[in-house]
Amino acid sequence: MLYWLMKWVVIGPLLKTLWPTKVVGAENIPETGGAILAGNHLAVADSFFMPLRVKRKVTFPAKSEYFTEPGFKGLLKKWFFTGVGQFPIDRSGGNAAQAALDTAIRLVEDGHLLGIYPEGTRSPDGRLYKGKTGVARIALESHGVVVPVAMIGTDKVNPIGSKMWWPRRLEVRFGKPLDFSRYDGLAGDRFIERSITDEIMYALMELSGQEYVDIYAAKAKELLAAEAAGVKPRVPEQPSGRAADRVPETKAG
């Protein structure tokens, strides 16, 4: 109930008024059944503007800190994120990471729309980065299609490090659904999961027009921070196949 109240009464009308948005390909979203909306991630604003243009409810994983912050402010955050249908995700790895993936799989199996960001965090410079394989694992185990979603212009609305939102015209592009049923039974095969993830990221690259960089966005942030500090950066690590490397992005990473 709170989700629809926020979308249609409290927040939605204001966002639609101040940020006119062109929507392309909305017909590619399945009208029923579970599906994964896999998007590029330019700003915190992505998680507001994309669901606003989808008729069905979209559920995002949200970082666990939103649910565990102490005090009155923490209670308000927990109430808000729980009320709008978000679920906590612990990105520290191990069993917590696997539990988050299991929750995402169950949501899609139960017929919901799951919104995730395969890059694992916001792009530090507007480019598209290597996807984590959690999106592939969810698709394989839930048998849900993947709809690529490209957000255009949200990095200008809500730049990294800025608490202000600036009026801009936006565009949301929904690509053709990607069906990976040809890989049924191969969940857990890291080569198959990497291949699927790369296919999704290629679709996002074409849809968004972003330059693609074949390292994780988190590693890119480390390299940029090291460069700014005058420290010689480490060579980017190769994927290890651990559960933490598969964890999809939180709502505001």
How many helices? The count is: 10
**Which runs of at least 5 residues are low in confidence (pLDDT < 50)?**
238-244
Indicate the structural class.
alpha/beta
Give helix and strand order, one letter per element, not per position.
HHEEHEEHHEHEEHEHEHEH
- The N- to C-terminal Cα distance equals 25 Å
Helix content: 25-40%
Estimated share of beta-strand residues: 15-25%
Strand order of the largest sheet: 1-9-8-2-6-3
Dominant shape: globular
Keywords:
two-stranded parallel sheet; globular; single chain; 253 residues; 10 helices; alpha/beta
Describe the fold and architecture.
With 253 residues, the chain is α/β, with parallel strands linked by helices. 40% of the residues lie in helices and 15% in strands. The strands form three sheets. It has a six-stranded mixed sheet with strand order 1-9-8-2-6-3, sandwiched between helices. Strands 4-5 form a two-stranded parallel sheet. A two-stranded parallel ribbon has the order 7-10.
